[in-house]
Amino acid sequence: MATIEMKNIVKKYGDGFPAVNDVSIDVADGEFLILVGPSGCGKSTLLRMIVGLEDITSGDMVIDGERVNDLAPRDRNLAMVFQNYALYPHLTVYENIAFPLRLKKRPEKEIDEKVRQASRTLDLDEHLERKPGNLSGGQRQRVAMGRAIVRDAKAFLFDEPL
Amino acid sequence: MNKNALTRVGTLVGFVLILLWCLLPVAWIISLSFKSQEAVTNGSPGFFPQSGGGAGWQNYVDVLQDEQFRRAILNSIGISLTATILSVALATLTAYAVARLEFQGKKFVLTTALVIAMFPVVSLVGPLFDMWRTFGIYDTWIGLIIPYMSFTLPLAIWTLSAFFREIPWEMEQAAQVDGATSWQAFRKVIVPLAAPGVFTAAILTFFFAWNDFVFGISLTSTERARPIPAALSFFVGADPFNRPASLLAAGAVVATVPVILLVLFFQRKIVAGLTAGAVKG
Ligand SMILES: Nc1ncnc2c1ncn2[C@@H]1O[C@H](COP(=O)(O)OP(=O)(O)O)[C@@H](O)[C@H]1O
Ligand SMILES: [Mg+2]
Hints:
The structure holds two protein chains of two kinds. Chain A is α+β, with helices and mostly antiparallel strands. Chain A is 29% helix and 20% strand. Chain A is built from four helices and six strands, in the order ββαβββαααβ. In chain A, the strands form two sheets. Chain A has a four-stranded antiparallel sheet with strand order 2-1-3-4, with helices on one face. In chain A, helix 2 (93-103) packs across helix 3 (108-121). The two termini of chain A are 23 Å apart. Chain B is mainly alpha-helical. Chain B has a domain at 66-234: MetI-like (MetI-like fold, Orthogonal Bundle). In chain B, helix 1 crosses helix 13, helix 5 (106-118) packs across helix 7 and helix 10 runs antiparallel to helix 13 (245-267). The longest helix of chain B has 34 residues, at 67-100. Chain A binds chain B through residues 51-53, 72-74, 77-80, 82-90, 99-100, 103-104, 131-137, 140, 147, 151, and chain B through 168, 170-171, 173-181, 184, 188-189, 192-193, 195, 274-281. The structure holds adenosine-5'-diphosphate (ADP) and magnesium ion. The site of adenosine-5'-diphosphate has 12 residues of chain A, from helix 1.
């Protein structure tokens, strides 16, 4: 796990509208933080800046003491469940969950162990060979969570997990 | 008769007419390919090969034993496949950029591509003939591959960028968060999702190259690069005053087979609705 410090984070989209305006939050190692706010107040935008999918207009994003503003998402080692899950429709549930491990070229045995462990935790054992298109909304969400938790990520971000 | 039944009968009659219209020439050429040369030249032969003396498989044996025809098949397969692979690979990369990036002159690139696709083929043949002889690529594979690519690339780019636009941005973003480079996200997520588009583009390109006659006949002079459609027109046989119609028919059937096989093979790959289930249901 890791610490995340946000210092005066501002995000202005192309049209100049400030979606996130001067946010400073420190998240301690192991801390559990929930952001609550009305739709459109910038929750997703903030999470996307933390994982690196959105450029930060001004302010500093610091993870484990290192300024990560200019790091690509893959170099930040954070896991995120997207608001709409963003599962890979051409892959089975098993392969969806294994995807991050395959990218890291982990050995086949380790991949299998971790995927099965995640699927047991999330109660997905019966669905491992199915495609996301045939699953219910709740099942899809659990697949998205499985994909996030198989990795040894520094932090886990969930966008509207309820 | 009520209106419903009338509609159904009308539809059926329409179907039959269209089928006859499309398949009769094909049936005729297949029948012709089994006839003997005498049957073709003697008076008015019937529809079925037996009626005027059939030739069995002899025409096919003759055509496939013909050195020039075999060489033409090889040329056609090689040229069409190369043009298809290069064209689809280039178009995939271009279409991805067009669909995902905002850059200056994007509209211009797309419009220019379309204009090129609509250019009349014959208007280019003369200049190309001259240029290719200067460059030393007249009567070579590459001399045909280049024009085939420039005529099919625009269509492939347009088809593929439409497919790419349908794929949610978040697919790639999820892959990047999972630890993929941009290239890995493209190759492992976007390309498989765009596969139906890739196959559509491949079929269109292959058809264009395989069926082309104008470039094939004017940019080649020997069997070194002459493709099937051009080679068939050179197929005269022993007696120049008696075109070997049944041999030509057999050749035409042989030339059609790879295309049919290809369509059957790719058709199964073109599955619509592949992105179903990507996002919240
Ligand atoms: N790509 C974008 N371009 C311009 N404005 C955007 C974009 N994405 C989000 N916004 C704006 O940013 C604000 C915050 O959006 P978002 O972070 O999605 O809110 P939340 O997740 O809290 O509902 C909204 O006003 C929205 O209109
Ligand atoms: Mg949101």
